[in-house]
Amino acid sequence: MSIPRLFLAFLILWLGLLSNPPAVRAAAPVSPSSDLLTLINGDTLKGRLMTGDAKGITFSSEGAGTLTIAWTYVKSLRVPESFAVLAKGVRVRQGRPNRKVPEGPLTVEGGTLSVSALSGPVRIPIATVLHLVDAKTYEKEVNGQEHLWQGWSGSITGGASFVEATQSLETFNFGIALTRTIPTVSWLEPDDRTLLGFTSTYGTISQPNTPSISTSIYHGNAEQDEYFSRDFYALVQALYDHNSTTGLDLQQIYGAGLGYTVLRRPVQELNLTLTASYTDQQFQVSSANQNLVGATFTVTYFYKFPHNITFNENSYITPEFNNSRAWLAYLSAGLTIPVYDSLAFSLQAIDNYWNAPAPGFVNNSFQLNANLSYAIPSF
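The chain above was modelled as a monomer; its predicted structure follows.
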């Protein structure tokens, strides 16, 4: 089987498996509860408190369904079930219970949240509340541990083009990106994160009585992050590249260093990393092969537009200490537009630059790929 047909078969297999996921059990109906919510306009709702955060609460009402209500509209709240209250300045990490987190029935009145904890009543200003989590879920997540196959999410992209005339042209694009963040709930501080990615472009041009021309470009990345705090982490990473258009057989970059999350918001995230790195370059012209020692500075950025349109950018530049001419850079930027359910249209630009390429080759390659994308459900 030829390489392009192998990639196409692999893509079809992935999409076939993912388009028929295991059946998901329907959520259990909300059990009757005596939680009582009174709004500032005098309306009273009976039901069940689901969750809460700095903005407000999610309340499942017996008559009005599930409602999201800002704290400014809440006059009082009575919750006889036990909840854990996470407030500003209190750090909670998986496997490290924090005794400063009060647990017990809740009462909200006059801008103050009261917790009937075992050690005695605890009063917390609503303005300092970050999360309300039912006690069973809190204990399970704080004391639990995810298995290796849990916490993963990501996407698969693929596309192809064919031309049949005097010249025959085949082009295949494939990519996969996976992220595993532990713990899986946002109200716990991050512990570790795994990033895996692979993109490829393969194409052939052929015509009678003329040698065929093949193009192959592959990029792979792997990164493991270990967090010291919510935003500061140590990391190790590996980057792999093959690019026939610049005469590169294989480039391997291995690094270790530090990272910092500059922005962490629901609609955007910005990460900066700096690593000490070793680079092994193998070119089609062996005299150009190099072993380099340098640093790698990486920027990753995510932004979510309205209607779930997302933008992702990943770039790095690697200055080399033992050969200043041999610096290199990489940029990948993509826009994903939902089409139907988990399917989306994606437009991705990839630019590779080598300041010291193999003799006879240009130092830059640019790709612009339009693909279909499938969002892998979190599991």
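The longest helix spans residues 3-18.
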